[in-house]
Amino acid sequence: MNAIRTFRRTFIGGYMKIFDEGWSKAKQRMKTAIKPGPGFDIGWDNPNMPINNYDIVIIGGGVMGWSTAYWLMHKVPRKARGKIGLNVLVVEKDPSYTRASTVLSVGSIRQQFTLPENINMSMFSSHFIRNIREYLSVYEEDPPDVQFNPQGYLFLATAEGAEQLKQAHDTQIALGAKVRLFTKRQLEVKFPWLNTEGIELGNYGMENEGWFDPWLLLMALKKKAISLGVDHCHGEVTDLIVEAKPGVVEGRLCKRLTHVKVKMPNSIQYQNVKAGHFINTAGPWAQDIARMIGIGQEDPMGLDWELQAPLPVEPRKRYVYVFHCPQGPGLDCPLIVDPSGTYVRREGLAGNYLCGKSPEEHEEPDAKHLEVDYDYFNETIWPKLAHRVKAFEEIKLRMAWAGYYDYNTVDQNAIIGTHPIYDNLYLANGFSGHGIQQAPAVGRAVAELLLDGEFKTLDLTRFGFERFLRNEPIREKNIV
Predict the structure, then answer these.
(1) Cα–Cα distance between 282 and 62 in angstroms, integer?
(2) Can you give the pTM of this predicted structure?
(3) Which of 52, 93, 245, 299 has its CA 20 to 30 A from that of 143?
(4) 405 to each of 50, 142, 250, 465, how far by Cα in Å?
(5) What is the pLDDT of residue 39?
């Protein structure tokens, strides 16, 4: 009889506690009771262990992953989340973000692209960042502040590049961007410290451009998404499991993912997490995730020819240098993009500047580590800076760091949408240095595609994986 009473108190009391705490808190309590895999004791306590069933698993917890998680929950009214059972998990193998592209980026945003999709994405992201309190405020928390510094980009063009710059300007204006063309003489008047030798035109962003703190944007997205009920865990995706029997949809072979294997850090524990949809936001390591399910594999029989096309994303190392120049330009200094590809911008108000340059293909550095090449600054970047701004002839290099681009080796543009074989695998990869500024727009687009079945606000169809199968790359001419 005592045993029955004890069971009743435990069983009924447990359910009452679930109702009292709410489903969100109950899930956290339940995690410790999940068996981590064959051969482990069910009582093994690991509070980081995710539960074994979600609607959506996002692989990669950088700015792209958390933006997608936020928009997925944002699109579903709060009262309806429990009814439709939208449970989202974000898996991140490095929550300290020591090697993440997000926090090692320059954190700039511009509308000066040549492709309409890129222009529109950055224009929305600029609106998002400028109104971030409206989007990402969390109840009883200080409102988010990413320290947005509104300052235009200044793209400079030689006589040979003037026509392309003008065409880009006309496209940007047609889409509502606030940019203005400057002749050589107008540049000399507005920026008297600028050497215009060899320059024919400049395109200057009047609004919706500038820079911000990438870490603060990442944390704001993460905090907001978690407040909306998104789960997250520190773990590494080591395998993706494919449904045993492929199907045929509209006359073509389709496969589906069923599980993802998540290994716990510094442990042999793992969890097989079942889900209905999977989103690859693994940044520079997105191709590693794709290879787990055969994307990019050779097929001698040619049966799955669509799988032979790889996800063309790899880590490319980029250097960022910070120098001091007390006599350099002040508040009127925009982010200058020289025709050589060298860029420089003001960093604060104490005479500090930030600069860099993407290397030529034959100059690509080893991406296995994040060591900085200071000779690259002295031999390649500094001469260009000193030529364009005379004050930069006398500078003191203060610090530098290296970060990764998730580089699309085909056309340096985003890859957004489902895979043509795996119809429940969504891709948000290959941003090639534009990810931090496009993340708010891309997260919204992926959420629309998953929940609505199509792009609603911005049509990003051209950025689908299928363009690689058709051998139809999309070229963006304003690459920095």
Answers:
(1) 8
(2) 0.88
(3) 93
(4) 29, 32, 36, 19
(5) 40
Residues 6+ apart with CB under 8 A from 402: 104, 317, 318, 319, 320, 370, 371, 372
Cα separation, 58 vs 60, in Å, equals 6
* Cα-Cα end-to-end distance for the chain: 75
- Give all strands (DSSP E) within 7-117, no chain letters: 53-59, 88-92, 108-109
**3-class state of residue 71 by DSSP:** helix
Of the CA atoms within 13 Å of residue 425, those in its CB half-sphere come to 30
pLDDT at 217 exceeding the cut of 60: yes
- Rounded CA-CA distance 103/222 in Å is 13
**Contact by Cβ (8 Å): 20, 243:** no
The letter for the amino acid at 459 is D
Q: What are the C-alpha distances in Å from 353 to residues 85, 253, 255, 336?
A: 49, 53, 50, 11
Q: Is 69:225 a contact under the CB 8 Å cutoff?
A: yes
Is-contact 329 369, C-beta < 8 A?
no
What is each CA distance from 343 to 192, 436, 441, in whole angstroms? Answer: 18, 17, 25
CA 353 – CA 350 distance, rounded (Å): 9
pLDDT for 244-270, tens place per residue?
Answer: 766 666 556 789 999 999 999 888 889
Return d(Cα 283, Cα 294) in angstroms, integer.
Answer: 18
Q: What does the angle CA 170 – CA 476 – CA 298 come to, to the nearest 5 degrees?
A: 155
Q: Cα separation of 368 and 316, whole Å?
A: 9
3-class secondary-structure state, position 87: coil
How many Å apart are CA 392 and CA 382, to the nearest integer?
8
Cα separation, 451 vs 323, in Å, equals 46
**In percent, how much of the chain has pLDDT > 70?**
86
